[in-house]
Write a structure and sequence with these properties.
Elements (H helix, E strand, L loop, with lengths): L3 H15 L14 H4 L4 E2 L5 E2 L8 H15 L3 H10 L4 H19 L6 E8 L3 E9 L2 H4 L2 H17 L7 E4 L2 H4 L3 E6 L2 E6 H12 L4 E9 L4 E8 L6 E2 L1 E9 L7 H17 L11 H16 L5 H19 L14 H12 L3 E10 L10 H7 L1
Antiparallel strand pairs: 1-2, 3-4, 3-10, 4-8, 5-8, 6-7, 9-11, 11-12
Helix pairs in contact: 3-4, 3-5, 4-5, 5-9, 7-9, 10-13, 11-12
Length: 380
């Protein structure tokens, strides 16, 4: 039997236990009651007393926010909101963030994404390069963005059809977006489609992210596939890519010298910006247009017609040296052009060596950045 005072105290205690206690931190003892009540202990008076430990402290909340942010890289505001909505359940909040990511990414998809990286993957006979765009170079330096780009390049390399013997082929976003990749990164793991992975990373970064384009080059003859990446934050990533295939007629010829020259020529492609391989591949319209411009410039000098013709032909040769790879001066040794370089290489190898294909790709080429004067004028 309890005294009246004891009964009243017990009634007050029961009422307080059944009522959620809200604090300024937004949690209640009732929500955690099942997990934080310790085993009952008997006091000397015969009363059962339960001890409460305040597990849901502000520091616990901060730890949960930190863990979820480490897992997802989502903004702190979104992380906290998801945890609150999921009653501070870490796994449920992570799932909720992934759901929200689709909405957040779709809202950002109309923003200009002209920064980013090229990712390149290759084997002995193939090379593939993709361009993954974002809005700022800050995101381009993020490890998750770089991991995604590298994964997409490897997929583009493996996705190439075995029926394609040699040449350069586009690998468009539409040919990759429905393919699945098994990701293995602390913040991006498990199997998902390319489209879903890009959407998820866009939500993490808080920017518009797009797979803009891709190319693959393959070769079927004896030779080497050479690549070069400029402004390379880590192997396989960069802002400008040069890819070049060198084919050797004799299948038994050593490729050591060919590999050395191939690496230098891939770097040459990045630096010299050739448009075509040989003069024959320059369109007649382009030649005629250039000839008219040069002739007009020469006539303004007031020189005799014979001198004007010589000036035009001389400047036309200079034009070919600028746009035709075989006519360009070799950047490593400008006393020879690429044509002479290959002739010397053929003699060294003991078999004819020729360039099969070449490709130069640069991040953002052809895209108008959001901070460009023209874009700002249109926005105004």
């Amino acid at each position: 039997m309890f005294s009246g005072g004891a009964k009243q105290s017990i009634e007050i205690l029961c009422r307080r236990l059944s009522t959620p206690i809200h604090s300024r931190y937004g949690y209640s003892t009732q929500a955690y009651r099942e997990t934080i009540i310790s085993e009952p202990k008997t006091t000397g008076t015969g009363l059962f007393v339960r001890k409460y430990s305040n597990d849901a402290s502000p520091s616990d909340h901060m730890n949960l926010i930190k863990k979820l942010r480490e897992r997802t890289s989502a903004p702190i505001k979104e992380v906290k909101s998801a945890l609150v909505d999921c009653n501070w359940d870490l796994e449920a909040a992570q799932k909720e963030l992934r759901k929200r990511g689709i909405v957040l990414a779709s809202k950002k998809s109309s923003r200009t994404a002209a920064e980013g990286l090229l990712a390149l993957a290759q084997n002995e006979t193939k090379a593939a390069v993709i361009e993954l765009n974002c809005e700022t170079d800050f995101v381009a330096r993020n490890e998750i963005f770089q991991y995604l780009a590298s994964s997409l390049a490897k997929l583009a390399l493996s996705a190439e059809s075995s029926e394609q013997l040699s040449g350069t082929f586009p690998v468009g976003p539409h040919s990759l977006q429905d393919l699945k990749i098994n990701f293995d990164h602390p913040k991006l793991n498990g199997e998902r489609t390319v489209e879903n992975a890009i959407t998820e990373v866009a939500a993490m970064m808080g920017e518009n992210i797009k797979l803009r384009r891709g190319f693959a080059m393959s070769m079927s003859k004896h030779g080497v596939m050479s690549t070069y990446l400029h402004t390379c934050p880590q192997p396989g990533l960069g802002r400008i890519a040069g890819i070049l295939s060198l084919e050797v007629e004799d299948e038994n010829a050593s490729l050591d010298a060919v590999q050395r020259v191939g690496s230098e020529l891939a770097m040459h492609v990045v630096a010299a910006k050739p448009l075509v391989l040989t003069k024959e591949l320059v369109s007649s319209d382009a030649v005629q247009n250039e000839r008219e411009i040069l002739k007009s410039q020469a006539e303004s000098s007031g020189r005799p017609q014979a001198a004007i013709e010589k000036m035009v032909e001389g400047r036309l040769r200079k034009y070919f040296e600028e746009v035709v790879l075989m006519e360009q001066k070799f950047i490593v040794n400008d006393t020879v052009n690429v044509k002479t370089l290959l002739n010397d290489l053929s003699k060294e190898v003991g078999s004819p060596v020729k360039i099969g294909n070449f490709l130069r790709v640069e991040v953002g080429e052809g895209l108008q950045r959001a901070d460009a004067p023209e874009a700002l004028a249109q926005a105004a």
